[in-house]
């Protein structure tokens, strides 16, 4: 094993069920329902959310999967780019909003 | 990376040897595994490729058409096609393609003759030829919208996306803007308008190595966006899968994605889509009169089965109707997902 991440490993995802297939089958059934079908959200919207989450958790497998998934759900690069900006904004905002805690400390120490 | 039709990553089965295919790219094996035997059901369409000359040189063109191609159907072959149409009332449709078919000097004549015979005429019109004209002679083709309307042709035009990026990426810089103006001129001639009876159908194909989105959802997007952005109308959107042959195949091989794309097509094999493949109801004629099961076979120099006539000059309707269709690896392109044909999805 020369690298921790190999793109070809993604297609081996189901092998994670080698020692407990029942749990993996339930996971994939849930996964398909959650991300791959039109519901209250369209499949395209779900794929764009998946792409944003993939960038937030910085999972190369997921970025690969959801980039293709977005295209195959009819999204274009402009929509995909906006979705990762949402991820970046929320993630950046999560850092900044903790600045209130910093302010709390400053107040507590009288600085 | 590939997804199944539910949008989840495609999974290689852990251990299911009884259904494991002998070859991932063996189309006959896939048919057999699903108990399918695809025979012709009819010959209702004569699809005639009148030549490879085109004013464009698109990234994914399966014909390898361009302004420097010289292959062109001559008058004798065009007349023979019309003779065959005249002799067979059951062949109700003439589907004229190219290249840009309007650049063939016999194009206008073929349309008029076929319409006189009462045939439904479909033209694979690239929109930009209205403005570019003939790249060899300089002849203007601005008259086409009115010509199509006068002869009540169905116009079928590629528009890879409702925005510029994907369209120009695939079909060349400036093509999107010209295409929009081409659609506007067709609309002005009555195409795409309710109750005009003049059909303008657009064709979407992916900008890269991925499968098309659902035809219905994309059609709704195209209609909404083309109307909101440009006030344009059309009738139907056909989604077509990129066929792994010629320019697109070379592109995949160059970037190391051929096996991955073929695997995607094979994994997405849909028996319902297979049942509706276009080769079951049409015959393809090349510029020289040679016959194939479809335009893709034609471009790969795969003629009809050796047991039947292979030229329009030796036409034998009954023999050809009862032929064995010739399949190859690229046929997975027509059977993946919701299926793909010159009329869109097949499932």
What would your notes on this structure say?
The complex is a heterodimer of chains A (111) and B (347). Helices cover 68% and strands 0% of the residues of chain A. Chain A has helices at 21-35, 43-57, 60-72, 77-97, 99-109. In chain A, helix 2 (43-57) packs antiparallel against helix 3 (60-72). The longest helix of chain A is centred in the last third of the chain and has 21 residues, at 77-97. Chain A is extended. Chain B is of the alpha/beta class and 347 residues long. Helices cover 34% and strands 10% of the residues of chain B. In chain B, strands 6-5-4-3-2-1-7-8 form an 8-stranded mixed β-sheet. Residues 1-23 of chain B have low confidence and may be disordered. Chain A binds chain B through residues 7, 10-15, 17-18, 21, 28, 31-32, 35-37, 42-44, 46-47, 61, 64-65, 68-69, 71-74, 76-78, and chain B through 1-4, 6-14, 161, 163, 165-166, 206-208, 210-214, 217-218, 221.
List the helices and strands and how they pair.
The complex is a heterodimer of chains A (111) and B (347).
Chain A (H helix, E strand, L loop, with lengths): L20 H15 L7 H15 L2 H13 L4 H21 L1 H11 L2
Chain B lengths: L26 H7 L11 E5 L25 H13 L5 E5 L9 H10 L3 E5 L4 H4 L11 H7 L3 E5 L5 H8 L3 H14 L11 E5 L10 H16 L5 E4 L6 H9 L3 H10 L3 H5 L6 E4 L5 E2 L2 H5 L17 H5 L10 H4 L12
Parallel strand pairs in B: 1-2, 1-7, 2-3, 3-4, 4-5, 5-6
Antiparallel strand pairs in B: 7-8
Strand content of chain B: 5-15%
**Mean pLDDT across residues of chain A:** 95
Unreliable runs of chain B:
1-23
What structural category arises from helix and sheet content of chain A? Answer: mainly alpha
Write the element-wise H/E pattern of chain B from the N-terminal end onward: HEHEHEHHEHHEHEHHHEEHHH
**What is the percentage of strand-forming residues of chain A?**
under 5%
Query: Span between N and C termini of chain A?
Result: 53 Å
Q: Give me the Rg of chain A, rounded.
A: 19 Å
What is the C-alpha radius of gyration of chain B, as a whole number of Å?
A: 20 Å
Query: What would you call the structural class of chain B?
Result: alpha/beta
């Amino acid at each position: 094993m020369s690298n921790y991440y190999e793109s070809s490993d993604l297609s081996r995802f189901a092998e994670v069920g080698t020692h407990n297939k029942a749990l993996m089958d339930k996971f994939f059934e849930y996964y398909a329902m959650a991300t791959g079908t039109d519901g209250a959200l369209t499949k395209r919207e779900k794929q764009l959310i998946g792409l944003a989450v993939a960038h937030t958790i910085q999972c190369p497998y997921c970025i690969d999967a959801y980039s293709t998934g977005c295209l195959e759900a009819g999204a274009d690069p402009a929509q995909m780019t906006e979705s990762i900006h949402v991820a970046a904004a929320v993630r950046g905002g999560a850092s900044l909003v903790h600045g209130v805690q910093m302010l709390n400390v400053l107040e507590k120490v009288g600085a | 990376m590939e997804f199944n039709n539910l949008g989840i990553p495609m999974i290689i089965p852990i251990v299911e040897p009884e259904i494991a295919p002998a070859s991932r790219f063996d189309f006959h094996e896939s048919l057999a595994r699903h108990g399918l035997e695809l025979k012709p059901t009819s010959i209702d369409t004569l699809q005639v490729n009148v030549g490879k000359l085109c004013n464009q040189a698109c990234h994914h063109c399966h014909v390898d058409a361009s302004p420097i191609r010289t292959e062109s159907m001559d008058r004798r072959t065009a007349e023979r096609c019309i003779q065959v149409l005249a002799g067979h009332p059951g062949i109700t449709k003439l589907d004229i393609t190219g290249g840009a078919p309007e650049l063939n000097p016999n194009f206008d004549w073929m349309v008029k003759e076929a319409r006189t015979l009462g045939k439904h005429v479909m033209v694979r019109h690239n929109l930009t030829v209205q403005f570019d004209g003939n790249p060899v002679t300089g002849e203007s083709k601005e008259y086409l919208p009115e010509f199509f309307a006068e002869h009540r042709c169905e116009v079928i035009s590629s528009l890879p996306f409702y925005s510029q990026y994907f369209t120009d990426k695939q079909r060349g810089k400036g093509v999107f803007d010209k295409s929009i103006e081409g659609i506007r001129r067709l609309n002005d001639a009555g195409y795409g308008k309710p109750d005009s009876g003049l059909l303008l159908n657009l064709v979407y194909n992916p900008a890269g190595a991925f499968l098309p989105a659902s035809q219905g959802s994309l059609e709704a997007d195209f209609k909404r966006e083309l109307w909101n952005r440009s006030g344009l109308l059309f009738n139907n959107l056909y989604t077509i899968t990129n066929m792994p042959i010629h320019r697109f195949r070379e592109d995949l091989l160059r970037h190391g994605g051929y096996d991955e794309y073929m695997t995607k097509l094979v994994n997405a094999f849909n028996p319902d889509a297979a049942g509706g493949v276009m080769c079951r109801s049409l015959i393809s004629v090349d510029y020289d009169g040679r016959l194939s099961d479809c335009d893709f076979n034609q471009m790969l120099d795969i003629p009809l089965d050796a047991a039947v006539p292979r030229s329009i000059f030796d036409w034998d309707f009954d023999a050809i109707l009862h032929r064995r269709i010739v399949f190859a690896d690229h046929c997975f392109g027509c059977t993946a997902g919701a299926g793909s044909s010159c009329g869109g999805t097949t499932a």
